[in-house]
Amino acid sequence: MNDLAPLLTPEGRALLDDVRGTAPADELAVATRLRREHPAELVSAALGQARLRQRAVVKFGAEDAERMFFTPNGVEQSTRASVAAYRAGRLKSLGVTSVADLCCGIGGDAIALARAGIRVLAVDRDPLTAAAARANADALGLAGLIDVREADVTEVDTASYDAVFVDPARRGGRGRIFDPEAYSPPLSWAVRAALRAPHAALKVAPGIPHEAVPAQAEAEWISDGGDVKEAVLWFGGTAPGGVRATLLPGPRTLPGRGLPDPEVRSVGRYLYEPDGAVIRAHLVAEVAQEVEGGLVDATIAYVTSDALHTSPYATAYEITDRLPFNVKKLKALLREREVGILTVKKRGSAVEPEELRRKALPKPQGPHAVTVFLTRVAGAPTMLLGHPA
Fold first, then answer.
1. Are 15 and 34 in contact (CB under 8 A)?
2. Secondary structure of 275-321 in the HEC alphabet?
3. Measuring CA to CA, which residue among 301, 375, 381, 376 is closest to residue 344?
4. Nearest of 322, 94, 280 to residue 198 by alpha carbon
5. Burial class of 257 by CB neighbour count within 10 A (0 to 12, 13 to 18, 19+)
6. What is the pLDDT of residues 87-142, one digit of tens each?
7. How far, in whole angstroms, is CA 45 from its chain's centroid?
8. What is the mean pLDDT of the chain?
9. Could you report the per-residue pLDDT of 291-323, keeping only the tens digit for each?
10. Distance in angstroms (rounded) separating the CA atoms of residues 174 and 57
11. What is the pTM of this model?
């Protein structure tokens, strides 16, 4: 599909309605029926768009996804709506009324900004992607707030906007790009664009090295439902050099306080598993202080404590057993305890959870559930058994 225009015609829109929700197994029969009355290329495009809309539901929700237009890369690379809405709300709270959205993709972030009441210039150099962004602004009734422009973002004048938002491409022909200077455009260009604006937000990969974060930026790692989604570099109206972790839904934000690394201590009654955004933001020390705990190992982001605390930034488990890594002993213990459900988590272990689950519990029997943590304690491979506290 190299052109959205046929799908935007009355015939194309009627076809999209007709193929909505088509299951993969039914596509051939549906295509055969529709090609009797419609051009084959248009039918194929409609079915392709239906598949993309089904994939997009997890990010945009069914109501929006069924009205929007997507490209394969657009579905893959667009921001989850909940994350985009949070970021738009933060810009709104800074007094931003207009944003230049550079590398806008199919318009997911522009939509969130517009819904927050912010005027948006959405720019992308790819013609099909820009066409999708324009169609989405129109489909969701936001065309009055979103001006889509097909252009090279490095040539766009953003001086009249309160803020710039840059979401550089982080995928190439060989998959994900990890070097920020290999982004398109490079992070260094995005930082220069940010420093020229009163406010700016740069979306980067959550694995960005802390040393690559500019001194002028506040770095924020965001997770949604426990999955780390992105990091954002904020400029203007924020704390330069600051670090925070934000968990959605909520939002719940944990700011960094510059605490030293927690001490290593013996395994206590409770084990705390910090949220991924907390770990990426290097804020495990803040969690350890909150739960009166320490680390099980200097290199592992598991916190242990004798006290039970409720924290939105970590999941607590009550530890019942501590064993040296030994599959036979684990298998015997699970059989003795009549365990039928085994959850395996790991940090600092080369063992694959599914492999251990298959070997330790080949025939699940019994009513009980156990969580086993494969980790290191004081440098030694260890299995910690427990259950959610």
1. yes
2. CHHHHHCCCHHHHHHHCCCEECCCCCCCEEECCCCCCCCEEEEEEEE
3. 375
4. 94
5. exposed
6. 999 999 999 999 999 999 999 999 999 999 999 999 999 999 999 999 999 999 99
7. 29
8. 94
9. 999 999 999 999 999 999 999 999 999 999 999
10. 26
11. 0.91
